[in-house]
Amino acid sequence: MKELIGVINLDDELDQLNELTYFRCGAAVPFAGRYRLIDFVLSNMTNAGIVDIALFVRRKYRSLMDHLGEGKSWDLDRNHGGLFILPPDWNDPTDISQGDLQHVHNNLDFFYRSSGSHMIHSGSRHISKVNLREVYKQHMDSGADITLIYKPVAELRPEHEACLRMDVDEQGRVTDIHKELDHPNLYMEMFIMDKYKYLELVKDCIAHGKNHFFQDAIQENRDRLKIGAYKYNGYHAVINSVESYFANSMELLCRENYEDLFRENPIRTKIKYEVPAKYLENADVKNSLVANGCTIAGQVENSILFRGVQVGKGARISNSILMQKCVIEENAVIENVIMDKDVRLSGGVTLVGDSRKPFVIAKSSQI
């Protein structure tokens, strides 16, 4: 889709997942057995045919760069265009930009060299399957200056408290943006607008000492901008805490939720070739997601196992998430636990968390 370029801005995404973000940014956190959170927004963009995508990162991005590489898994390893991972590089002594505006100011060449006339701007905390072609069509048909994507939710959850809300009139115009906790229209931190209009607003914000594009350019100019709204009704999850990560991961064990997320349009990720999962004589696995390369000799129920997990004989795992290459030795017991990569749990040890507040073990720990 040559008309659109993509910008994934991680500047405002702080390390909200505690132990899971000790060594990585939130966008690089593993999810659903074989993916990273960044994969979903990136796949939405590439599924729409977007081939010029900038990723603005500021901190803890080594793991993200290792995962994305040159973008080959998303068909973005191109001679012209492709994926541009843009860490901070502030070499201009005259630069007065602040906050997320710095990324734009210091990477203007990306915008000017990209052929697309419009841009889709997103973070990575909202997991969805938004059809960006439809968003673009509605935006162009409406004549709006900017179109915000929102999700009307039937049930408000704790992770929604941090989300901005939108009032939308019958004509699909945004009349207000606020944080009323009982309001169901969640702004998904995703918008589309003319590329040059965007750069014009960024320049104006910098000149006036502002530091946050959405707040200073959009919210404060609601009366001057024609703001449209795109209503999204598909799968949606907000990952902004350990609790929301755990709850939304566990809900994927429900077939309906899993199919809503993965049934249409592929979610692409870094390819890692592994042997199939091996179930030994005493293995007992129920209602779980088990990735390639796992070896299971114990009991696994209502759990998610990433690649290469080893479960020893007599071990019991329930309602838990075990990331890549965790080792659970014989007769160990875990329940309501999140284990980051390369954790080893000694034989006979018991770890029990709460379903509302799981026990989290940091990467490469030995217990």
TrEMBL record:
Q: Any idea where the Glucose-1-phosphate adenylyltransferase/Bifunctional protein GlmU-like C-terminal hexapeptide domain is?
A: 282-350
Q: Which residues cross the membrane?
A: none
Alphabetically, the GO molecular function entries are:
nucleotidyltransferase activity
Q: What positions does the domain Nucleotidyl transferase occupy?
A: 16-177
Keyword presence, Nuclease: no
Return the InterPro entries for the record.
ADP-Glc_PPase, GlgDAde_trans, GlmU/GlgC-like_hexapep, NTP_transferase_dom, Nucleotide-diphossugar_trans, Trimer_LpxA-like_sf
Keywords assigned by UniProt, alphabetized: Glycogen biosynthesis, Nucleotidyltransferase, Transferase
Keyword Ribonucleoprotein among record annotations: no
Family named by the database record = Belongs to the bacterial/plant glucose-1-phosphate adenylyltransferase family.
Protein name in the entry: Glucose-1-phosphate adenylyltransferase subunit GlgD
What organism is this sequence from?
Paenibacillus physcomitrellae
Quote the gene name from the UniProt entry.
glgD
